[in-house]
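Dear colleagues,

As part of the handover before I leave the project, I'm documenting each prediction I ran so the next person doesn't have to rerun anything. This entry is a single chain, and its sequence is reproduced below.
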Amino acid sequence: MVRVNSVTHRAPDSPSRQLIQELTKDLEQVRIHGEELKRVKAYESRTFYERLDQIDRQREEVHTTALNEAAANRDRRRQQAEETLRQHLLAVEEERKRKEEGERQRLEKLRLEKAEKEKKEREEAERVQVERRAKDAERARLAEEAEKSKREAEDRARKEREKLELERKKADDELKRKAEEEARQKLAVEKEKKEAATKKSGISGSNHRTAKELQEHERYIKLHAHLKEFRLYMRAQTKTNPVLKQHMGDMRRTIRKCVGQLVTEDKTANQKPTREIAAILRKAQDLAEPSVDIRQFIAFPPPNIASLENPQVPALWVYLLNILAKSILAQLMAEAGVTTKCAEPLGVLTAQIFSMDVFCFQGQSMIDILLAKYRFLCPVLWGFYGDQTTDEGRTAIGWIREEGKGAFVSAQLHEERMAGLGAGYAAIALRNFAKSPRQNPYPNSYFWKTLSYIVNVPPTEVQDTHLVVLAAMLRYSAPRIVNFWGDMGVLALRQAIVQFPAGLPKKSTQRAMVEDLRDVLAREKRIVI
């Protein structure tokens, strides 16, 4: 707004005052111009933003129109898809109904056919039943007549049998009476001979064995001698049989090597030599010639084998089983005699090989080959012994001589051999086959019998060898004895370790070895006896 100053007519001001007034007017004009510029800028800015808003509205209208068209297009396509789906579902439903109708007609047809078939079968069955009843009636009539005739014949035969039975019974009673009389006379004669032999020979385990046990031991000793002759026979065969010669030496050396490779602490490491031995024995079974009668190498063949006519097996296979047995026993005497627990892997090997079905003959284990050698080397295990202060007694107890039938070996070497064989016997006889499908080649009951042989030796006849073998048998086997026989096993250990040595007339180092087992078992195995 322009101010207009009313100036009274007065005398003109001074030049400076006029200058100030003009300057004031100019400043007022500048201010008025600035305000007008602001109004122009504000108008331009408002016009600019209004233009922008108009452009945004136009773009929004374009976008909205495009979105509406897209939505309409989408709705149109959705409607088309829904219509197509509806038509497809109608077609599927019609197809399903058509198939169901076809299946229903097919099932109905099958049902009618089945009903017709069943009707015919019933009619046929009824006809057959009528015919069978007629035949059964006829058979029953004939059977009744036959039964009547049979009963009459049986009555006649029964009366005849009763008559014969009565006569046979009288004859059997007479024979039985005569046999009992002969048996009593024979028993009296044997008793007299036994008493005479006892007086003559002094200390001898044979005096306490039955006739059956004597016969059994004699058979094994003969088998041991036969095995020696058999080895000579096989060596002679290699001179005329180059194929046998080619295999026999290598196989024998390999078996001995594998037996020597067994270790005490690592069971896994022992699997390889065991498999190698089994492979060699299988290979030997493939060499059919020369062959031998298997009954020669079984101490007491069972009836199913004894009745066979000339049962032949490869001789090389039997020879290698003999070599294996000799190697096991040699290793027992060499190592287990010094370190008793070395017998364990050898016992495992023996049980594994001699229990394999492929190395049995018609279910019969060939462990008799090992037992024959065992009985010869350590007869005290089977109740045979002698006075080891005499040459005859040492021979009877298994005390060997030096090479060339010279002097007897030292007492230390003899005891080491016996200790190894005693430990090995326990490792073989106390194997647990409860979870194995195989049959135990040497049942645990034999260990119990051997233990009874030793602890029932009269105190005045007990030899140092008995005590050495007993200590070796029980050193590491006590837990198995308790596991197999429970409280009875504990009582057996007490009898063997406490009561048996306590009844001996004199003290010795060997007796102390047995008595010390009581503390050893309590300390190491927690078995208190």
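The longest strand covers residues 291-293. Residues 1-9, 193-201 have pLDDT under 50 and may be disordered.

All the best with the project,
I.
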